[in-house]
Amino acid sequence: MEKKFLSGLLLGFIIATTSVYLLETIDELIQEGDMIKGSFFLVVTVLYIPIGIWSIKTNSAVSYTILIVGTITLIVLYAVTRTDMAQAIGMEGGEIGNLGILSKVFQTAIVIIAGMIMYSNSRQQIIIQNRQVRRDK
After folding, report:
1. Which residues contact residue 38 at a Cβ distance below 8 angstroms, ignoring those fewer than 6 apart?
2. Which of 2, 38, 69, 102 could form a disulfide with 28, with the two C-beta atoms 3.0–4.6 Å apart?
3. Which pTM does this prediction carry?
4. Per-run averaged pLDDT (10 residues), the chain, 137 residues
5. Are 20 and 103 in contact (CB under 8 A)?
6. Which residue intervals of 1-137 are DSSP H helices?
């Protein structure tokens, strides 16, 4: 697939995920009054788009790796806080909500698309290196 298409798709899923986290932030901070969860969702909301844009602009393996690792961390943290393992980190296990499931679907797409871009970039570098080797002979 074309890199511009994948980059646009990636940005779309990042914006969608950020929107879900914004709704969670509003719910936790304003409606529930939970400053810890609300603050967590606020930080994710504020950082997701800039990190995504930085990844797309720099088109580097490091930036995409940070995006992928951060996103997987959020997915794992969600899974942990929905099970009995949440007690090990001092929390009660939460419910699996519609917004949570939606954000995990979006985040899975982010990981897959960022991985596809990284793979495409590495293949492109191999092709360029092979052309240079042929020219040097």
Report:
1. 25, 28, 29, 30, 32
2. 38
3. 0.82
4. 88 93 84 79 89 92 94 88 67 72 93 94 76 68
5. yes
6. 3-26, 35-58, 61-80, 98-136
Residue with tokens 């897959």: 112
* pLDDT number for residue 97: 76
Q: Residues 97, 37, 111, CA angle at the centre, nearest 5°?
A: 60
CA atoms of 66 and 58, how far apart (whole Å): 12
| 48 residue type, one letter | Y
Separation between Cα atoms, residue 8 and residue 82, nearest integer Å: 32
How is residue 36 written in tokens?
């810890």
Please, are residues 25 and 41 in contact by the beta-carbon 8 Å criterion?
Answer: yes
Distance CA 69, CA 32 (A): 29
**Which phi-psi region, left, alpha or beta, contains residue 127 (left: φ > 0; alpha: ψ -120 to 50)?**
alpha
Neighbours of 18 (CB within 10 A): 19
Tokens of 69: 């690792």
H-helix or E-strand spanning residue 90: none
Determine the residue type at 120: S
d(CA 101, CA 35): 22
